[in-house]
Amino acid sequence: MSQQPSAAGAAQALPGHPFVAYHGAELQVENVRLSQLAADHGTPLFVYSKSAMLTALAAYQRGFAGRHAQICYAMKANSSLGVLQVFATAGCGFDIVSGGELERVLAAGGDAAKIIFSGVGKTRAEMRLALNAGIGCFNVESEAELDVLSQVAESLGLRAPISIRVNPNVDPKTHPYISTGLKDNKFGVAHEDTLRIYQHAASLKGLQVVGIDCHIGSQITDATPYLDAMDRVLDLVASIEASGISLAHIDFGGGLGINYNNDTPPAADALWAQLLRKLDERGFGQKKLMIEPGRSLVGNAGVCVTEVLYVKPGEQKNFCIIDAAMNDLPRPAMYQAFHAIVPLLAKSGDAPEVRYDVVGPICESGDWIGRDRTLAVKAGDQLAVLSAGAYCMSMSSNYNTRGRAVELLVDGAKVHVIRERESAADQMRLERLVAI
Ligand code: LLP
What we know:
globular; binds ligand LLP
């Protein structure tokens, strides 16, 4: 299927969303009108721009030009196969956190040797799966995990390539649920224990030490915490190497933020220009670099298209009830996160401008998508929830037995269905009635 951009008026891209733009009155992703996609596929509906993903990736690639670097897409942000395929084809590796994610990467054609495996609770079965697949590196998060991984690798006659995730104890100045590099987080090993734990790792027969890893949090909009974390990690690299253990790579994790609501994160290439300067100054410019970006590669490549079911005036509040809900878009309920909400048709009609809480149909007061939003809408109008490419579909659920939404990948004027709408039968497939 292909569609033409509407002719009227110059395209007006939405802030932070270079491939989501009004062409005349019609909101488009790349060259495709969202109203047409909603008519063809129903709502709620996720639409992703391939060019937006590749453009976001290109900023990192520019930042690393001439360096020995590997970009591992943190697929927890959006693990749909069609999205993984885009990054695998572009040469990315993947940061995984479960055996399931490993199976997805392999199904999407990803290269096992470019996979890094993060997470505090890897099971023996997941370790075996990853060792047999030949992944590039395990990011180990505790001393106990080192011992178990060494045993599992030895039992397979293999050596597991490892980095240890260190906790640099810097404040990323983001939401507490998504900051991970502080002392009271469950992630990584404490700075002061790192050297001793590396020495322990180097003594284990089933392991091969290849690197060091850190990740300080997510939706970081300032370069300072990265620069501070880099200093702390480089101090450790110096002391670990001085003790005779060489580190082939340094993994700086992910975490770069996107523009949800007038946020101004640095561009990936600008951030890395600063970080590389520091690496060079401190004499580590020749090391292989790894990074694990998730949100910044996909977040603003996606929108969720939804229909207004009812408008419901109230004494204290007016509600705009839409057909997308917290099962599709869990970030507002979980983190009070802000997602911009815009109409598919600018100036669509005669509805008055009203201040609404935009809410879903789920039976929870926490099922809201936007609060105090001024919209001119009536039942049947369609809206786009922006910045919905990261941590939306991958965190979606079937709560209230709602099927997961359709996902489309737009490439110019081409539209690919990368996930069909989930039916009630799909949801019940693994369940059994009992013989009563
Ligand atoms: N590496 C590790 C070890 C991580 O834990 C994460 C994210 C990433 C990389 C990727 O971070 P990013 O570049 O996407 O910021 N659900 C939350 C975000 C949780 C992030 C968890 N870890 C949200 O919706 O804001």
